[in-house]
Amino acid sequence: MQSFSALAADFASYFDRKHFPKEPQTLYAPNDYFLSLGGKRIRPILCLMGNELFTDIHPSAWEVATAIEMFHNFTLIHDDIMDKAPLRRGLPTVHEKFGQNTALLAGDVMLIKAYECLSKVPSSILLPIFSLFNKIATEVCEGQQLDMDFEQRTNVVLDDYLLMIEKKTSVLLAASLVMGAIVGGSGERNQQLLYQFGRKLGLAFQVQDDYLDAFGDPQKFGKQVGGDILADKKTFLLIHALETADKADVAILQSWLGKQGDNKVNDVLSVYRKCGIDHWALSLKNKFLDEALADLDQIAVVSARKKPLIELAEYLIKRDV
Amino acid sequence: MQSFSALAADFASYFDRKHFPKEPQTLYAPNDYFLSLGGKRIRPILCLMGNELFTDIHPSAWEVATAIEMFHNFTLIHDDIMDKAPLRRGLPTVHEKFGQNTALLAGDVMLIKAYECLSKVPSSILLPIFSLFNKIATEVCEGQQLDMDFEQRTNVVLDDYLLMIEKKTSVLLAASLVMGAIVGGSGERNQQLLYQFGRKLGLAFQVQDDYLDAFGDPQKFGKQVGGDILADKKTFLLIHALETADKADVAILQSWLGKQGDNKVNDVLSVYRKCGIDHWALSLKNKFLDEALADLDQIAVVSARKKPLIELAEYLIKRDV
Asked: Rounded distance, CA B130 to CA B212, Å?
């Protein structure tokens, strides 16, 4: 069994090649460009780890991993159009650099490429992988739509937000593990447990991300603290605060929504602290992490095979921050 | 063997149902709306005809036909965004009615739905159908990109245009027939011939479309005659005229490109007629039609099975207009 970082290095060198034809260059240069921007490649590595949880990595796992990474990049290209994002990893997004129409089409062709990679899987396992891929691909689109809807809505409750995050982020992480597990010959019960492990890890990660944006150490976090507050983003923290704070504090939070001002971040953080949102978020994150690890624990393989996934979970999700 | 119109009626009633879940309604109402706009459903019917060329229609052919129609609708939703088209079949396009972001995502989810329909095909024939689908889906995107590129280019030659039309239109018609043929148990040689039949029929149809836009009877054609000329569209006619007309006539054509004026259509049509572009287009169309029928003729099945396809070809492509 290999660690995440060992597999990351292997995947990086496997993936580092031309994936698209030369012509029409106006269509494929944008795709090559976008893949060259890099990324953490977490999802394909989860696929390889899902395979290795059960048996040595089968050559097909690399194809599935590539399909997953292509799919993820398709979502990024199209999300960037929808978000009108000028930059991705510090460089111009595809629509900024090549125009919106080409970005739209480059995303389309990236999605079809994902399916092309998938079609290289042996017939014996093609159908379950193909079906799962279609299911979560649909859910990721639904998650993106819900996310856009929430920007317009004022009545988003915690269950809505959980569903959105689950679809937009968690299901792809979960399915990446499971598609690898299918290649590795896993039975259905183990696949279900692994899916839940990935899903809850994704939720824990999102709670942590929301928490760090408000309470993180800016030095360690590497982002502007309070960015979500300034952008009026409906995070775990804001939604829970609006649901649990007393009338006066809810009024403070609502008075800042859609407005800017020097005290905005401090005012909102004071309410969050007063209502114990910080402790609530930490315990929610740990609850998801514990549940994820409990699901992993139940998977019927020798413990040694689970070690890299436990290490990864504890590396991604810190208990005390 | 059933005629195109009999199969059209069957497919219309098969396809007339809810294909998408209810929620999120913000995502799926646009898809339901777009499918409700209707369409000729030529491609799925070609798929059924491709099956029936070899044997009775297998239940899977309906799934593949649905996948093809979903794919075609995906391309229309995204093409409408790229073309900034306000109307489709006389009603607002998806981006006009629901906003561009939702149209983008509705197209994405329509493409994934196409693959979901495909995944219902029996394992024994899934791989060849899946692979062909991926190949032509990619080519359709390439064709759309070439079409957009040509709008910016002044040096488009006939071979460029043929390649663009082939990718953007013909390969999906050809592959629709062949996917049906695969369901029907056709051998490879017959598949290749049927693919060429569909491809050349597509080319003949496009030549006819370009011809009718310039020389058609407005009463019969149902569109404004000269629309392509007014829009400076690089059609078979314009490209061939620019390649073959004498210097003075080329100058007339070029003087009108990018400009509008009362005499534009008449001036361009005079040049076309003077250079015999009308006769050239008719004979090019008939050449493609003859080649298509010759390919069909070579397919190793009893002639009676070919009758509906011959009738369809001669219905779609009129020899004398």
From this structure: 36
pLDDT, position A220:
75
- Bridge partner residues of A87 (DSSP): A92
- Confirm whether A176 is domain-assigned: no
Q: Are residues A310 and A204 in the same domain?
A: yes
d(CA A23, CA B318): 35
Q: Is residue A158 part of a domain?
A: no
> Could you give the residue ranges of the DSSP H alpha helices within A3-122?
4-15, 25-36, 42-52, 59-83, 94-98, 100-118
A82 contacts B141? CB cut-off 8 A? no
B221, burial (CB in 10 Å: exposed 0-12, middle 13-18, buried 19+) = middle
Domain holding A131, by residue range, is 1-140
Q: Nearest CA of chain A to the CA of B232: how many Å?
A: 20
DSSP B56-86: SPPHHHHHHHHHHHHHHHHHHHHHHHHHT--
Please report, for the domain that includes residue A101, its CATH number: 1.10.600.10
Are A127 and A1 in the same domain? yes
pLDDT of residue A218: 76
- Residues in B touching A132 (Cβ below 8 Å): none
How many Å separate Cα B53 from the centre of its chain? 21
Question: What does DSSP assign to residue A222?
Answer: -
Q: What is the pTM of this model?
A: 0.95
Identify the domain boundary among A140, A157, A173: A140
Is B134 close to A115, i.e. CB distance below 8 A? yes
Last residue of a domain, one of A105, A121, A140: A140
Contacts of A108 in chain B (CB under 8 A): 78, 107-108, 111, 141
- CB of A25 within 8 Å of a chain B CB? The answer is no
Dump pLDDT digits (tens) for B129-143: 999 999 999 999 999
Average pLDDT over residues B294-319: 95
For the segment B55-114, what is each residue's pLDDT rounded down to a tens digit? 999 999 999 999 999 999 999 999 999 999 999 999 999 999 999 999 999 999 999 999
Of residues B26, B123, B131, nearest to A119 (C-beta)? B131
What residues in A contact B134, CB-CB < 8 Å?
A: 112, 115-116, 119
Q: Is a pLDDT exceeding 70 seen at residue B125?
A: yes
Indicate whether A194 and A297 sit together in one domain. Answer: yes
Residue A88, SS3 per DSSP? strand
* Residue in the block written with tokens 């229309």: B76
pLDDT at B319: 76
The total domain count for chain A is: 2
Chosen for mutation from A108, A135, A161, A166 (greatest number of chain B CBs closer than 10 Å) is A108
Is residue A113 less than 8 Å (CB to CB) from chain B?
yes
What single letter denotes the amino acid at residue B114?
A: A
What's the gap in Å between the CA of B209 and the closest CA on chain A? 25
Low-confidence ranges of chain A (pLDDT < 70): 221-223, 321
ipTM above 0.90, yes or no: yes
A124 and A206, same domain (yes or no):
no
Span B141-184, pLDDT tens digits:
999 999 999 988 988 999 999 999 999 999 999 999 999 999 99
With CB atoms and an 8 Å threshold, state whether A116 touches B104. Answer: no
> Does A116 contact B138 at a Cβ distance shorter than 8 Å?
yes
Q: Which residues in chain A are closer than 8 Å to B105, comparing Cβ atoms?
A: 78, 82, 141, 144-145, 148
